[in-house]
Design goal:
alpha/beta, Rossmann fold, 6-stranded mixed sheet, 7 helices, about 35% helix, His_Pase_superF_clade-1
């Protein structure tokens, strides 16, 4: 039997609301983000999971804690599941980045895979570390359901890898805060995307529905 991954993007933060790039900056969930996580926890309450994994950044780890609290399970934290390190761009909006780093931002928006963000990392480096971490989880949990709570860039990289996409186009995959994605892995090389960017658990609380959230 294969492994089924329940892949969750963390709940909303204040920086998501103001469209500021977070990267490795350790921003906690907002009150809205915590409520989003609770609604997702309710949706997953009836499922049986063999493990919970999360990025070690507060926004992902706290989301995982809220979900796992209904299952009485500990969370395995993995730094390799962190968002892309945006270096000197962290805390800035797209408009501010374009103004302060015009040449670098132009190259990054066109082909982000191998463009190093000032003080940060390339998308290729992030994708390699994050996908490798998920691969280890999948290979160790044959026949299990696993929850992984992480970040938009990580999920896009994993989904894009599974689908054989050019990761330079990863930004075309919309991912809202507290969304649920499911990938079945009969084996690592044949992953099947079963569900993508599902936010139906938020529909009962209109104030929790996503807007256009930043990274």
């Amino acid at each position: 039997m294969g492994c089924r991954i329940y892949l969750v993007r963390h709940g909303e933060t204040e920086w998501n609301t103001t469209m500021r790039y977070q990267g490795h900056t350790d921003i906690p969930l907002s009150d809205k983000g915590r409520l989003q996580a609770k609604l997702l926890a309710g949706r997953l309450a009836g499922q049986k999971f063999a493990g919970f994994f999360a990025s070690d950044l507060k926004r992902a780890h706290e989301t995982a804690q809220i979900i796992s609290s209904l299952h009485g399970m500990e969370i395995n934290t993995l730094p390799d599941l962190r968002e892309l390190n945006f270096g000197l761009w962290e805390g800035l909006s797209v408009k501010e980045i374009n103004k302060a780093f015009p040449e670098e931002s132009k190259r990054f928006w066109e082909k982000p895979l191998f463009v190093r963000i000032p003080g940060g990392e390339t998308l290729h480096e992030m994708a390699n570390r994050a996908v490798a971490a998920v691969k280890k989880i999948v290979e160790r949990h044959s026949g299990d359901n696993i929850v992984i709570v992480t970040h938009g860039g990580v999920i896009r990289s994993l989904v894009g890898t599974v689908l054989g996409m050019d990761l330079n186009k990863h930004w075309r995959l919309r991912l809202d805060n507290a969304c649920l994605n499911i990938i079945d892995f009969p084996d690592w090389e044949n992953g099947i995307l079963m569900l993508f960017n599902d936010c139906s658990h938020l529909s009962g609380a209109p104030d929790c529905l996503p807007g256009t959230a930043g990274r």
